[in-house]
Amino acid sequence: MNAAMTERRIKAVGTVVAANIGRVNREGDPIKVLEAIGQQRTAEARGAEAMITNWIPNTQEEREQAGITDIDIVEAVDYYTTPRGQSPNSPNKLKFTSLGSVIGFDAFHLVEELLTQPLQIIVGDVQGAFGSFKDGHELYDRAASEKKDLCIVEGASHYDLYDVPEPVGQAVAKLAVFYKENL
Q1: Burial of 74 (0-12, 13-18, 19+ CB in 10 A)
Q2: What is the pTM of this model?
Q3: For residue 152, what are the domain limits?
């Protein structure tokens, strides 16, 4: 979706559970995090080791110990830290100072002006912390696309739309019709 704003060869855009990662990371206290990032950058400039952190807890036990109960985090741990979705190329780690760029990123920046292609947005109605339900609605409201549709898959969470056959089947069927009409 974000790439389509500046790549005019993309003729139609379909997105399933779009979440604005910048918005997600600006929730809470982003100024406090940015200040900590600044302190870490200073420490690294003075020779300290880079601080490596995790995107999500490494296990369900670690998540439970942290008191995290949000459905998106519960399902993210299930997806990314088990054979269901785990990949050796995605080790659930990032350099802490990289979060500054994530906090400053807005996936929807300029959609009112530049996202003009036909747009199909698909979200589940089970809402969690990642906010794809909310972000899907925001994208629909803001995008300049004259031809756009928001499809809500009943009973589906963010991660159900990754690989659970029934909701994925509904999303794929909707996208097949959309692309047939617009490509």
Answers
A1: buried
A2: 0.91
A3: 1-20+107-183
